Amino acid sequence: MSIKKSILIISYSNLKNDPRVFRQIINLNKVGYQITAIGFSNPQVQGVNFIGVDKKESLLKKILFGVYLLLGFYEKYYWSQKKIKQSIEKVKGLEFDLIFANDLDTLPLAFKLKSELNCKILFDAHEYSPREHEDRLIWNLLFKKYTHNILQNYKKYIDFMFTVCKGIADEYKKNYNLSPLVVTNATEYHEISPTIPKLKKIRMIHHGGSMKSRKIENMIMMMDEIDERYSLDLMLVNTDKTYHNYLIKLTNRRKNVTIIPPVEMHNIVNFISKYDIGLYILEPTNFNNGMALPNKIFEFIQARLAIAIGPSPEMKSLVEEYNLGVVSADFDSKGLAISLNNLTHQNIIDFKKNSDEIAKKVNSEENVKIILKTVHQLIGNPVC
After folding, report:
1. Distance CA 137, CA 100 (A)
2. Is 60 exceeded by the pLDDT of residue 348?
């Protein structure tokens, strides 16, 4: 009798709206592995067993957790979290051949299950956890030493590791002697033809979360320096209510900037394909922002857009390699405004054509091959 190899994918995120983790789930499920996924929301993939956990903690618990972290009781903090306790309870009696652990907060749990089940750990670090929110005082106070401690103590149990770009992979190698393989955040290939921009109406789009560390106001301020051809739509997920309201106030003062409602994750590429330029100025407020190579850059490409960015090294390398758009000399929004003002109508058409030409190359297909090959090497074929 044939038996399906079983994989537990853990990500403390909303699985349906987490593009990177969703691709893991859907592609491993598609080739025949039996998938169980732990997270905050159901990915709604047929055949996938979902285990939901709760991320909410009481105020008293949060205060207690702060004390644990300040005193260096890192293990006590970790194992006291509701999501960890629920995860342990809900997987009792289940067996897995592989734990696919996403982000650092799943690694100790993955080790516990590995020791009990004698299975493998595939760790996707995503970004660089030890400097994740180094621009925030409270994070430095409570979590900086904690993240270092967890990674230092549990790295030896990792059987294989991924991260999102070379700059972050190099940092893990330099500081922790880990050698993650790069799996980018490239999205699926979309069969889309580039639209022709109107001569005097160039539409720009930025999409993502309203996160203060991303300084979205820089892109809004840039619109004060740009010529009358351009307009900007901000398709924002309200992840920080206070900051989101601040951005609304800024856009209300300007005629050429609008905040629009977000669309479902799976509809992003098709929706933004009606625009001309994908815009992203991401000031390096922390290490991960400095090394960012986010989903949205790949979504811009699949939507066949020209791209306008600040000089973030990983994004800059991609844009310049394929001549996809303009990169400002610094993170001053005025610099990018000058670059955009100097663009001709034909420049934008050519950039969009270049996006079209590389869309078949720069997509998730190669990443899926890497993931499937790695999983196969760790645990073998989906069915044994």
Report:
1. 31
2. yes
In contact, 365 and 23? CB cutoff 8 Å: no
pLDDT 10s digits, 85-116: 999 999 999 999 999 999 999 999 999 999 99
283's tokens: 């000031």
Tell me what pLDDT residue 131 has: 95
Per 3-state DSSP, what percentage of the chain is helix, strand, and coil (rounded to 5)? 45, 20, 35
| Stretch 327-344: mean pLDDT | 92
When pLDDT is cut at 50, 70 and 90, the band that residue 1 belongs to is low
Q: Are 89 and 112 in contact (CB under 8 A)?
A: no
Distance CA 168, CA 180 (A): 9
Residue 195 C-alpha from the chain's centroid? 27
Q: Cα(303)–Cα(324) distance, rounded to whole angstroms?
A: 12
Smallest CA-to-CA distance from 83 within 12, 22, 147 is with: 12
Q: DSSP letter at 286?
A: S
- What pLDDT score does 192 carry? 96
Residue type, 82: K
Question: Considering Cα of 189, then 192, then 196, then 198, what sign does the dihedral take?
Answer: negative
Measured CA to CA, the distance from residue 91 to residue 9 in angstroms comes to 12
How much is the average pLDDT of 136-141? 95
Q: What is the DSSP letter of 48?
A: P
In the chain, DSSP assigns E strands to 6-10, 34-39, 49-52, 98-102, 120-124, 160-163, 181-182, 202-209, 230-237, 257-260, 277-280, 306-309, 325-327
Average pLDDT over residues 292-306: 97
In this structure, what are the phi and psi dihedrals at residue 181, rounded to the nearest 5 degrees? -85, 140
Q: What is the pLDDT of residues 8-29, one digit of tens each?
A: 999 999 999 999 999 999 999 9
What rounded mean pLDDT belongs to the chain?
95
DSSP string, 154-218: HGGG-SEEEESSHHHHHHHHHHH---PEE----------PPPPPBTTBEEEEEEEE--GGG-THH
Sheet of 230-237, strands arranged across: 257-260, 230-237, 202-209, 277-280, 306-309, 325-327
Instruction: With CA atoms as reference, report the closest residue to 131 among 346, 287, 300, 237.
Output: 287
